[in-house]
């Protein structure tokens, strides 16, 4: 048991001053009168830990390159330095054998209660060729029974699949949902009607809104139009200054029901390192130029964004309050993933919290009450 006194405290709903709280068995408690402990003072802003539903790598680790618990630890450790306390390790389009090994590593991490790992996100391989982005075209394919066997596993925590609904029959999408998979639309050239048909059977997410999806136009709203129109669907947003123009991001926030836009990083291995390049698919490399990543074939290839930077960027460029940016980084992704004890710091919540200074830089980070 530990007692803390936070000079500023945001519980996911309200901002408060000088709040005492306990961490008991990895949970938040406000029964401070029952403890004679002297509180440790936390100078700064205590806020719910950030939750990232799209993380390909970090700290030099790349899930597509190494499917192991050790790689997951490397990725979690890198992002924990920037306030992330829960993440969905993301495997982009690859061979079935790589998908199976990634599932095995995730299952081992879940079984061992590895801090920070809450499931797995398969971004592909059931995507649109015209909107493949930097994904390897040779591995894009329909869903086979081999993939369904992976998606059916019950030892993976939260399961998420990004797909293009024009390439996957509605019956297969429905089957995924019945298997407990969260289906998100991305890397899709679908028209509005096809997209809405997928939403009507239970799809509830859009992967990196605006990027690698059919655009909104006057006569064809496309995937972007459906994403902005459908109140019950969440949208991930990469606020790094490269993936989405600030005006487009502000329009999305204004259009959507509050709580349905969540910050994501789409982070790659260089996050938390000084690395300037890494090996990619098909003999390509990904090159870092400042805070931008491009494949040697030209496409944007994920990002070097971290969640603390995403929060800062949102405040500085999107005309939203710090409180709303924090919710977009924690409460809203928790609600999307169904993590009822994360994304907030109410009584009984998981003790996943971050301490920020006035510049929204991370001073320290706690997962389950343990400083990471």
Please tell me about this protein's structure.
- By secondary structure, this protein is α/β, with parallel strands linked by helices.
- The protein contains 10 helices and 20 strands.
- It has an 8-stranded parallel sheet with strand order 5-8-9-10-11-12-13-14, sandwiched between helices. A 7-stranded mixed sheet has the order 3-2-1-4-18-19-20, with no helix packed on it.
- Helix 5 links the parallel strand 11 and strand 12.
- The mean pLDDT is 97.
How would you concisely characterize the structure shown here?
This protein has 372 residues and is an alpha/beta fold. It has ten helices and 20 strands.
Structural key phrases:
372 residues, alpha/beta, eight-stranded parallel beta sheet, seven-stranded mixed beta sheet, 20 strands, globular
Low-pLDDT ranges: none
Number of helical regions: 10
> How far apart are the termini?
17 Å
Question: From the helix content, strand content and strand pairing, which structural class follows?
Answer: alpha/beta
H-E order? EEEEEEEHEHEHEHEHEHEHEEEEHHHEEE
List the SSEs and their pairings:
Elements: E1 2-10, E2 15-24, E3 27-29, E4 40-48, E5 50-55, E6 57-58, E7 61-62, H1 69-80, E8 84-92, H2 96-111, E9 119-123, H3 145-151, E10 158-163, H4 170-178, E11 181-185, H5 192-200, E12 205-206, H6 222-229, E13 234-237, H7 246-255, E14 261-263, E15 277-279, E16 285-289, E17 292-295, H8 307-317, H9 322-329, H10 331-337, E18 353-356, E19 362-367, E20 370-371
Parallel strand pairs: 1-4, 5-8, 8-9, 9-10, 10-11, 11-12, 12-13, 13-14
Antiparallel strand pairs: 1-2, 2-3, 4-18, 6-7, 15-16, 16-17, 18-19, 19-20
């Amino acid at each position: 048991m530990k007692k803390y006194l936070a000079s500023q405290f945001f519980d996911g709903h309200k901002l408060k001053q000088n709040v005492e709280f306990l961490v008991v068995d990895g949970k938040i408690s406000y029964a401070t009168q029952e403890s004679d402990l002297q509180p440790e003072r936390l100078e700064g802003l205590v806020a719910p830990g950030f939750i990232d539903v799209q993380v390909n790598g970090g700290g030099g680790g790349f899930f597509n390159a190494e499917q192991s618990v050790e790689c997951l630890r490397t990725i979690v450790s890198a992002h924990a330095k920037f306030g992330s306390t829960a993440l969905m390790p993301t495997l982009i389009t690859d061979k079935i054998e790589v998908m199976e090994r990634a599932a095995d590593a995730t299952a081992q991490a879940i079984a061992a209660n590895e801090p920070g790992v809450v499931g797995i996100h398969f971004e592909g391989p059931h995507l649109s060729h015209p909107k493949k982005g930097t994904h390897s075209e040779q591995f894009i394919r329909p869903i086979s029974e081999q993939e369904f066997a992976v998606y059916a596993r019950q030892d993976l925590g939260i399961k998420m699949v990004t797909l293009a609904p024009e390439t996957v029959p509605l019956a297969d999408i429905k089957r995924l949902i019945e298997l407990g998979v969260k289906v998100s639309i991305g890397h899709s050239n679908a028209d509005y009607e096809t997209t809405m048909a997928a939403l009507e059977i239970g799809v509830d997410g859009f992967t990196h809104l605006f990027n690698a999806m059919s655009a909104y136009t006057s006569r064809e709203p496309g995937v972007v139009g459906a994403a902005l129109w459908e109140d019950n669907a969440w949208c991930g947003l990469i606020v790094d200054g490269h993936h989405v123009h600030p005006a487009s991001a502000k329009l999305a926030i204004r259009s959507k029901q509050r709580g349905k836009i969540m910050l994501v990083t789409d982070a790659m291995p260089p996050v938390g390192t000084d690395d300037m390049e890494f090996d990619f698919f098909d003999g390509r490399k990904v090159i870092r130029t400042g805070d931008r990543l491009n494949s040697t074939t030209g496409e944007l290839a994920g990002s070097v964004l971290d969640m603390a930077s995403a929060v800062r960027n949102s405040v500085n460029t999107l005309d939203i309050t710090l409180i709303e940016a924090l919710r977009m980084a924690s409460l809203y992704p928790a609600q999307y993933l169904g993590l009822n004890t994360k994304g907030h710091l109410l009584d009984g919540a998981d003790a996943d919290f971050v301490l920020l200074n006035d510049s929204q830089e991370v001073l320290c980070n706690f997962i389950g009450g343990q400083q990471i």
